[in-house]
Design brief:
This protein is α/β, with parallel strands linked by helices. The chain contains 13 helices and 8 strands. The protein has a single domain, classed as Metal-dependent hydrolases (TIM Barrel, Alpha-Beta Barrel). α5 crosses α8 and α10 packs parallel to α11. The protein starts with 9 loop residues before the first helix and ends in a 5-residue tail after the last helix. It comes from Nocardioides alpinus.
Length: 302
């Protein structure tokens, strides 16, 4: 067991509590012909729940995914990400407050202190490569009933994370759920950092072009394999190879044909093969391009 013992957040528990229909572990796919990075994973949520951290890292490496960006979404998750990255050579960390955390923290008067701690974590640990995931989420906002104050807290938090990424020269990792126009509006108003990633890209080809015109990297998850995801595949098709990333968002968004089961980094090859098919690309060539692009997007190798 990792000494960086995970502390499950309320948000993480809410996300996973209703998704336990099928716990059977998908089989390991055929290894990739060239390694790639899973640039967005939540090992703290999977650890102790389905697949332990050490096993997740080893299983991923065995199929050509030797490096992972561990993303923290709240204060327990951010602290865990930093500790895990310090312990495991295969990991680097992203730290931030998820947009759904911002209204909760604002309501208790803790948003300022939480953002201050995110900055401290990002400045005192050299394996923190990213500020994220931050951003905007209209889907959960509508469900929360937090009204204008809750949305204002999301926007304030997002703006402050953008500022952190720019001041600290970190990659900004953006969560965008049903908030395409608002995300780009705030980026335009604040000025985007040099490197920024649209995590689990969820738009169509027109929105992809709007993001790419502003310098974004687009990260594609298992959703690109879903039957109803033709607009997402169209977005992938118009994205230049030097702007394409791959991720799991594990334990969420498991690719077809294993949709509904918990995800893990060792399933990246399933998504990569689907992406190569969409792009009519040689798999090894695409893997090499994604690997090189990930290093650029996250400030170098590790």
């Amino acid at each position: 067991m990792s000494t960086a013992e995970p502390t499950r957040s309320r948000a993480a528990t809410e996300e996973t509590s209703g998704a336990r229909r099928d716990r059977e572990r998908p089989p390991a796919p055929e290894p990739l012909p060239h390694p790639v990075v899973d640039n967005h994973c939540h090992l703290d949520i999977a650890d102790g729940d389905w697949l332990a951290t050490e096993a997740a890292i080893a299983d991923a490496a065995a199929v050509g995914v030797p490096r992972i960006v561990q993303i923290g979404c709240d204060m327990p998750g951010a602290r865990w990400a930093v500790a895990a990255a310090a312990e495991h050579d295969a990991l680097v960390a992203g730290v931030a407050l998820h947009p759904n955390e911002a209204p909760r923290l604002a309501a208790t008067g803790d948003l300022d202190s939480a953002i201050e701690e995110i900055e401290r974590l990002a400045t005192t640990h050299d394996k923190v490569r990213a500020i994220g995931e931050t951003g905007l989420d209209r889907f959960r906002h509508a469900q929360s009933g937090s009204g204008d104050e809750g949305w204002a807290a999301q926007e304030e938090s997002f703006r402050r994370h953008i500022d952190l990424a720019k001041r600290l020269d970190k990659t900004l990792v953006i969560h965008d759920r049903d908030a395409h126009d608002d995300v780009l509006r705030i980026l335009d108003e604040e000025g985007a950092p040099e490197r920024w990633v649209m995590h689990c890209f969820s738009g169509d080809d027109a929105f992809a072009r709007r993001c790419l015109d502003r310098g974004a990297y687009l990260s594609f998850a298992g959703t690109v394999t879903f039957k109803n995801a033709a607009p997402l595949r169209n977005a992938l098709a118009v994205t230049p190879r030097d702007r394409v990333l791959v991720e799991t968002d594990a334990p969420y968004l498991t690719p077809t044909p294993y949709r509904g089961r918990p995800n893990a980094s060792y399933l990246v090859p399933v998504t990569m093969r689907a992406m190569a098919e969409v792009l009519q690309a040689d798999l090894e060539d695409l893997c090499r391009a994604v690997d090189a692009t990930t290093e650029t997007a996250f400030g170098g190798s590790w």
